[in-house]
Design brief:
single chain, mainly alpha, transmembrane helix, membrane, DUF1206 domain-containing protein
């Protein structure tokens, strides 16, 4: 057997491993875990809109802290973190071998999958670190983390440009997320033929509303990053918690945050639909 055939056989075995039942189960567990986080973030944001939130954070750290305070919270956090590890491994398999579907091998889709792999690695690490007792890892304020990172980057040569371009990229990503949701582009990733009409209707309500709300949060956070770059002020940069609180400062008061909060919870439910019907 020559070297080329050995390499080809190795790639084939790796691809079969990427398409295995274990990877599929990990992906579905990951969507379930993402759904839990977004439902909790939406609930915390709703508390902030209606009563100030009682000092709680409406971000991943706040969701982790909320889970940890419940009975069997540590067990739930371990399960949540393992689910996010499954999501990260699935995204890695997409980056290496392509996504499901006719255009899954495109370089752009693989690059996006690689970026999501990095994101979910960080998310899984933060949850598992908190579950293991390192409370500063997972439960830290996203606002403080955002400001600290922005301050460091602004101190670099050309740091204003880097922060500004990064902010524009996040804002554009938010707009893209919202447009994709409104156009229901997620249909191509789901097993629509397995759904009843009622399930499809519920899916679209959660997918369009939730995706639009999520996109609005990303776009707003990107705008704050651009403001931080223009003013050379890291305090202008905001994490998810402060970004959500900023919606209460609009002319409609806290009601815009109520809409966004319900939308984020809807995106969590949409993630649960993905856990069941996603093509993996």
């Amino acid at each position: 057997m020559n070297t080329r055939s050995v390499a080809s056989q190795g790639r084939g075995q790796a691809r079969r491993a990427a398409n295995s039942t274990a990877v599929e189960a990990g992906a579905r567990a990951g969507f379930g875990a993402r759904g839990v986080i977004y439902v909790l973030v939406g609930a915390l944001a709703l508390q902030i809109a209606l009563s100030g939130g009682g000092g709680k954070q409406a971000d991943r750290g706040g969701a982790i802290a909320e889970i940890s305070e419940k009975p069997f919270g540590q067990i739930a956090l371990w399960l949540l973190g393992i689910g996010l590890v499954g999501m990260a491994l699935w995204r890695l398999s997409e980056a290496l071998f392509g996504q499901a579907g006719p255009d899954g091998d495109k370089a752009s889709k693989r690059a996006m999958a690689a970026g999501r792999f990095v994101f979910y690695c960080f998310a899984a690490y933060s949850v598992l670190s908190f579950a293991a007792g390192e409370s500063g890892s997972g439960g830290g304020s996203s606002d403080q983390q955002s400001q600290d990172i922005t301050a460091k980057v602004l101190a670099w040569p050309g740091g204003q440009w880097i922060v500004g371009i990064g902010g524009i990229a996040v804002a554009c990503a938010g707009i893209w997320i919202a447009v994709q949701a409104i156009m229901r582009k997620y249909h191509k990733h789901l097993k629509m033929t397995e759904m009843s009409k009622k399930v499809r209707r519920a899916l679209d309500i959660c997918g369009v509303f939730g995706g639009t709300a999520r996109g609005a949060v990303f776009a707003t956070a990107g705008g704050f990053a651009v403001a931080a770059a223009v003013q050379h002020d890291p305090d202008q940069s905001k994490g998810m918690d402060d970004t959500l609180r900023s919606f209460t400062e609009t002319p409609v008061g806290p009601w815009l945050l109520v809409v966004i909060a319900v939308g984020l919870a809807a995106f969590g439910v949409f993630s649960w639909f993905n856990a069941r019907y996603r093509k993996v």
